[in-house]
Amino acid sequence: MSEGVAERLAAVRARIARAAERAGRRADAVTLVGVAKLHPAADVANAVRAGLDAVGESYLQEAQAKIPEVAALLAAEGRTPPRWHFVGHLQRNKARHVARLFEVVETVDSAELGAELDRRVAALGLHLAVLFQVKLSGEAQKGGVAPEALPALVEASGAWGSLDPIGLMTMPAAAADPEAGRPVFARLRELLESAPSLPRGGRMRELSMGMSGDFEVAIEEGATIVRVGTGIFGPRQERSR
Which of 74, 176, 200, 226 is the most exposed place for a label (fewest CB within 10 A)? Predict the structure, then answer.
């Protein structure tokens, strides 16, 4: 096993525990998703061996090759594969591929995308957990539904029989200071608290926010899912073109 991955994972879990304690929360109330984009399958398998049970991918083409490879590496040892989260921008024409590979999609930001994903998941006889990505950074290149349009998107989800909306996700603008994201994280928590009940019953409860540079602040503001890449896997390789 790569001691680097195992040691970094242990260090991240310790930081999660300290942040949760500061917030008066339990560490096990926070799900750690290791974002493995641009890292090889062997690194993911090492992280799973060290106890990571949820892995995120941003690029579909990369995931299509990596997910089966990780499964094969772990199956040879009798290990269960991780729960895969799609955390990148999702185009409707890629929905059918994502439906086959992932258990959670964190980046649903329109009724049209949700409807297409629901259609693809239903055709496979599956159910898929989804989060609504909310745009709070003001950056043009980032996806997400506008906060004022979130209630309409929640209402539209009533027509999706194979998707289970579980919460909200956001990405603040990149910043050197982890505290810069705190207002964004607090705002997402407020949006979750004020979001309408789901049309088919129940309420959303998950807040996916915080990455390697600011996940501790996100936990202090209520994150239930944090997405940590370089903090676990180290510096990313260059993406091939």
Answer: 176
Radius of gyration of the chain (CA): 17
Specify the 3-state DSSP secondary structure of 128. Answer: strand
Helix, strand, coil: what percent of the chain each, to 5? 45, 15, 35
Find the CATH number of the domain harbouring 108. 3.20.20.10
Residue 140's domain comprises 3-233
Number of C-beta neighbours around residue 149 at 10 A = 16
pLDDT at 2 over 80: no
Tell me whether residue 238 is in a domain.
no
Sign of the torsion angle spanned by Cα atoms 130, 132, 137, 143: positive
Element (H, E) at 225: strand 225-228
Distance (Å, whole) CA 168 – CA 148: 14
Check residue 33 and report its DSSP letter.
E
- Taking only the tens place, the pLDDT of each residue in 145-186 is 999 999 999 999 999 999 999 999 999 988 999 999 999 999
Which residues in 116-138 are b (16+ Cβ under 10 Å) and which e? Answer: bbbbbbbeeeeebbbbbbbbbbe
pLDDT in tens, 105-118: 999 999 999 999 99
**What's the angle, vertex CA 91, arms to CA 172 and CA 197, rounded to 5?**
65
CA dist 33 and 44 (Å) reads: 11
SS3 217: helix
Residue pointed to by tokens 């690194």: 43
